[in-house]
Fold this protein.
Amino acid sequence: MTITPFWKTIIDKYESDHHLFMTERAVEIVAELMALSARTAPKGRGQDSIETVILSGDSLQELAGEMRKMGQERGLKFFLRDAANMEKSDACLIIGCKGESVGLDCGGCGHCTCQEMSKAQMDFLDQQPEKLFHGPCCAIKLTDLGIALGSAAKTASLHNVDNRIMFSAGAAALSKKLLPGSMVAYALPLKASGKSIYFDRTG
C-alpha cells in the first residue's frame, strides 16, 4: 500500500510526539525514584528533615524565569547560564532541608547550643530576608542534605539520565517558596538526549 505524503507527515509527527512523550515520562519516573532515594538516604539520629518537589512542563519554565530574574537583579551571570539549561530540561528534582536541629549541642553550626542556633535563625530571617539561603543551619542537617543529593544523583546515573546539581535553581526554588519549610535547597535538573546539556557550557 502506498502512503501519501499527507499521511506520512501525520504518521511521522505521531511517532515523533509519542517518542517525546515516552522520553519525558521516563525521565519523570526517574525523578520520582530519585526523590525516593533522597527520602531513604541515611539521616543523622534517624530524623528526617528533607523536603523534595518534582517539576516538569510549565513549572520548569517558571523556575527558569525566576533564575533569570535573580541573576539579573544580583549580577550573577551563572544564574542566567543555568536558566538556559533549566528551560531545556525534561524534569527537575529539588531537595531542601528544614532548619531543625538534632539537639546535640555539637557546635558544628558555630553556636554553642542548638537553642542559640534557633534564635539566630529567627534573627537572620528578620534582618536578612533577601539572602539566597537562610541560616545558620544545623551542620548535621546539611550533611543529611548532601547525602540525599548524592543518593539522588546516583539514581539518575543508574538510569542513564543526565543531571547536574545546581545551587542557582535551588535558590530560585526557595525564592518561589516551593519548599516552604527549607532553609537551604539544591536542584537536580534532568535531561535525556544524545549529549549532556549540563557540561561543556559557557558563562
The CA atoms of residues 151 and 191 lie 18 Å apart. The chain has one domain: 5-191.
